[in-house]
Amino acid sequence: MAAAIFACLVLFAAASGAVFKPGTWYASLRKPGWTPPDWAFPVVWSVLYVLIGYAGWRLWTGTGWSLALFFWGLQLVANALWSWLFFGLRRMDLALADLVLLWLAIVGFIVTALPLDPVAALLFLPYLLWVSVAGLLNVSVLRLNRLA
C-alpha cells in the first residue's frame, strides 16, 4: 500500500510537467548552446521520478516519519510548482526561486536521509545533478530573454 501511495504522489508531481508543457512560447525563447535536446527531458525525468518514489518509499518503510520525509515532500511540491511557474505563468524569475527551494530540499533530503538509509540518500544524487543543470539553464534562459 505504501508503494502505491508514493507512486501516486510522484505521478501527481510529474503530471504538472504534462499539463504545463513547453510549447511554442518556450521554443521561441533564446537558449544557450548547451541546452539538452528536447527528447532528453522526458527521458531523464522519467528515470528521476522512479528514483524519487523509490527513495521515499524506502525511507518510509525503513524508518517511518522523519525530517528526511519532510524534505522529500517539500521537494515534490517544489518540483510540481516549477512547470506551472515557468511554462504556465511564464515567470522564469519565480521558477528560478522555486528551483532554489527545490535544490535546497533535495540537499536537505540527502543530508537527513543519509544516516537513516544511505541508499535512499544516494538515489537523490542524479536528481541533484539534473536540478543543478536545470537551475543553470533557467538562469541562462532568463538572462538571454530578459530584454526580449
Automatic annotation (TrEMBL):
Q: Does the keyword Signal apply?
A: no
Q: Name one Pfam family in it.
A: TspO_MBR
User: What is the native source organism of this protein?
Assistant: Pannonibacter tanglangensis
Query: What are the UniProt keywords, alphabetically?
Result: Membrane, Transmembrane, Transmembrane helix
InterPro entries xref list: TspO/MBR-related_sf (IPR038330), TspO_MBR (IPR004307)
Q: What biological-process terms (Gene Ontology) are attached?
A: tetrapyrrole metabolic process
PANTHER family noted in UniProt? PERIPHERAL-TYPE BENZODIAZEPINE RECEPTOR (PTHR10057), TRANSLOCATOR PROTEIN (PTHR10057:SF0)
Keyword Transmembrane helix attributed: yes
In the record, the note on similarity to other proteins reads: Belongs to the TspO/BZRP family.
The record lists the membrane-crossing segments as 41-60, 67-89, 95-114, 121-142
Renumbered to this chain, the signal peptide range is none
**The protein's name:** Sensory protein TspO
Gene3D superfamilies, alphabetized: TspO/MBR protein
Top-level taxon of the source organism: Bacteria
Location of this chain's protein in the cell: Membrane
Q: Which GO terms describe its cellular component?
A: membrane
Question: How is the protein disposed in the membrane?
Answer: Multi-pass membrane protein
